[in-house]
Amino acid sequence: MIISVVSGKGGAGKTTLAASIAHVLEAEFYDLDVDAPNAEYFLQPDFDRETAIVQPTPIFDEDRCDACGICTKECRFNALYKILNHVYLTEPLCHGCGLCEMVCPQQAISYQDSPVGVIRSGYSQRLKNHVHVGDLAIGSTRGTYLISEMVKKIAPDKLSVIDGPPGNSCAAVAAIKPADLVVLVVEPSPFGFHDMQQTEQILIQMNKNYLIIANKALDEASVARFFSNREKKTTLVIPLESRYHKANLAGDILSRQFEEIHSGLQQALSQELAIQ
Ligand code: SF4
Ligand code: SF4
Q1: What does the pLDDT look like over 120-134, one tens digit per residue?
Q2: What residue's CA is closest to ligand 2, atom 2?
Q3: Residue of 59, 61, 66, 110 to test ligand 2 pocket, by largest number of atoms within 8 Å of CB
Q4: CB 111 within 8 A of CB 57
């Protein structure tokens, strides 16, 4: 079973709760927040493996290309465009699918590997399981590709927790895609609620089973304000408390330090996972 922890808005406490959920379940952990992975500060794995991820990128032989434009028309990601007699690549849009090479009548296209990032892996004593962290290469815009490559490595028969990227981008969707259950973390504020609703639309369209955790709640009224007129309610509300904040700053896993967080998460997930 794969659980993806996501949030429409950054700063809602997604990574904090992903680490706690993985700790409660002793699940394998995948940090797919590849632009800024930081779950390792809580999980403290001993990294012992590093895998480089590359993506094939088309290059063009100017001497062979007759600027017919076939490749630009066929690329379904609109990654290619032609100006005068030259074909150009918008690298962030390229998925390395290989179609342009296949359709080029002049055999003017070949591929070279472009670095996308690395996957670091190691065992966490705190988690009692393995941790895998995706690190996007500096300057690379291919986070979605790196996430998809990491997702391929997740064994569906094991219990795994994904810390997805914040927001509602293609990268977030790639982290949601493999999930059997999605935990949507919301900070009960106007911005947090607005962005949560956008993520919720994605989850509904993807037909995902999900539950909502409200984190950093000022009080019950602040949560009720947003959820009173909704059919889907919060499964768990975690209050905004300085002791949680201090534990975060110290790199502690909340569920490891606070019994109420441990039991709250266990209860929230128990219906879905049949754990007691
Ligand atoms: S490899 Fe695929 S996505 Fe990339 S430019 Fe060629 S056709 Fe487009
Ligand atoms: S299909 Fe080949 S020949 Fe035609 S524009 Fe593209 S690279 Fe040039």
Answers
A1: 999 999 999 999 999
A2: 104
A3: 66
A4: yes
List pLDDT tens digits, range 193-235.
999 999 999 999 999 999 999 999 998 888 888 888 888 888 9
| Backbone angle region of 71, left / alpha / beta, with phi > 0 → left and psi within -120 to 50 → alpha | alpha
Backbone angles phi, psi at 66, to 5 degrees: -105, 15
Q: Which two tokens stand for residue 1?
A: 């079973």
Ligand 1 and 236: CB distance under 6 A: no
Q: Which two tokens stand for residue 51?
A: 């895998």
- Candidate of 61, 83, 86, 106 to mutate for ligand 2, largest count of ligand atoms within 8 Å of Cβ: 106
Q: Which of 124, 120, 180, 110 is nearest to 146 (CA)?
A: 120
181 pocket-lining for ligand 1 (C-beta < 6 Å): no
Structural domains for the chain: 2-53+116-273 (3.40.50.300), 62-107 (3.30.70.20)
> What is the per-residue pLDDT for 224?
87
Alpha carbon distance 120, 132 (integer Å): 6
Question: Please, are residues 182 and 4 in contact by the beta-carbon 8 Å criterion?
Answer: yes
Q: Which residues line ligand 2 (CB under 6 A)?
A: 60, 65-71, 87, 104, 106, 108-109
Residue 135 CB contacts under 8 Å (≥ 6 apart), including other chains: 34, 37, 117, 118, 119, 120
What phi, psi does 52 have (nearest 5°)?
Answer: -80, 135
Residue 275 banded pLDDT, cuts 50, 70, 90: very low
Count Cα atoms within 13 angstroms, Cβ side, for 180.
13
Which residue is associated with the tokens 């790199």? 251
Ligand 2 atom with the shortest distance to the CA of 107: 2
